[in-house]
Amino acid sequence: MNDGSRMRAGDTLNTSLEQVLYQVKRVIVGQDVLLERMVIALLARGHLLVEGVPGLAKTLAVKTMADALGVEFQRIQFTPDLVPADIVGTRVFNQKVGEFQVALGPVFANLVLADEINRAPAKVQSALLEAMQERQVTIGRETHILPDPFLVMATENPIESDGTYPLPEAQVDRFMLKVLVDYPTGAEEFVIVERMIMGLETVQRVMNAQQLAALQRETQAVFVDPALIQYAVRVSQATRELKAVGLDDMARYVTFGVSPRASIYMILAAQALALVRGRDYVLPEDVYSVAPDVLRHRLVVSYEALGDNVSPDDVVRAVLSKVPLPQVPMQDRTHERTAAPADDWTWAPPPR
């Protein structure tokens, strides 16, 4: 495919993406950050964790996005009495044929909504680990491949403790992004009430799974300068060695820094954000913008941090303020993406 045909294909895909967002905004009022992060997760083939108090349209946003995309959608309401077979499926005995057959669970869909995921115990939550990481499920001795694309968007309620379980660190690390949803403004809440009184509009299907897969391939082709990869690595390393970046007072608040998966996801999410913003190359601001959502749930803070009311977001903001952004010059983007990073960096302050 030459540059001209590729540009026309990219324009078509971006137009489809705009139509999806338009359909979702017909139902969802505000929540621009959530919707943008949902699109980033879809394009980057990453899973999304959404945290917010009840009534902020977290579930409705995911359901509306699935309707506009036209992909197979399943919702799993997590409760304390769930068992892993309720999610991935199980083997059942068919008396007519006299043998066991596999009944696949609701995880076999393109977009899975794990609603209130922190209400299920660790054994059930861990049932999603293989599905989220390997995109397959093992039932008995048989391995079943999940549909492509496959994405998990999970919601959790932060204000209740009865009947809830903290997510295992291994599972939290599988989520590319964690988004915190806040209350709407007064004007937005007025429109929300007005729409609910009048009835929600019907969302039109403007995309399908094949088009979504094409957008994901387009995202993988977005150019990333090696200096930005080095920046993501430095940010991740700074969370493990806070004293090395001059954050001696913060060191006692962090028990474990982020894993290398954070560096990977910062770049993948930045590629998707660049495509959403109409570019085929990543800017430093793209990496900086997605960094808090990639890092906040991977930091393990100490009990001292809880006592001093220091949140992971406080640590992330401090780290981002200490690691300067590279000012990447516009270059010929035809060279290999694996080229070594330049030694002579020029620096610019983080965007406000």
Count of DSSP E strands? 13
Give the biggest beta sheet. Answer: 5 strands, parallel
CA radius of gyration: 21 Å
C-alpha geometry: globular
CATH superfamily of the largest domain: P-loop containing nucleotide triphosphate hydrolases
SSE order, one letter for each helix or strand: HHEHEHEEEHHEEEHEHHHEHHEHHEE
Give the termini distance in whole angstroms.
39 Å
Fold and architecture overview:
The chain is α/β, with parallel strands linked by helices. The protein folds into two domains: 3-214, 3-Layer(aba) Sandwich (Rossmann fold); 222-348, Magnesium chelatase subunit I, C-Terminal domain (Helicase, Ruva Protein, domain 3). Helices cover 43% and strands 16% of the residues. It is built from 14 helices and 13 strands. The chain has helices at residues 3-25, 32-44, 58-69, 85-88, 122-125, 127-134, 169-172, 186-198, 209-220, 226-240, 260-276, 284-295, 303-307, 312-322; strands spanning 47-51, 73-77, 89-94, 99-104, 111-115, 136-139, 142-145, 151-156, 175-180, 254-256, 300-301, 325-326, 347-348. The strands form five sheets. A five-stranded parallel β-sheet has the order 2-5-8-1-9. A two-stranded antiparallel sheet has the order 3-4. Strands 6-7 form a two-stranded antiparallel sheet. A hairpin with a 4-residue loop joins strand 3 (89-94) and strand 4 (99-104). Helix 2 crosses helix 11, helix 9 (209-220) crosses helix 11 (260-276) and helix 10 (226-240) crosses helix 11 (260-276). The radius of gyration is 21 Å and the shape is globular. The two termini are 39 Å apart. Residues 4-9 and 334-352 have low confidence and may be disordered.
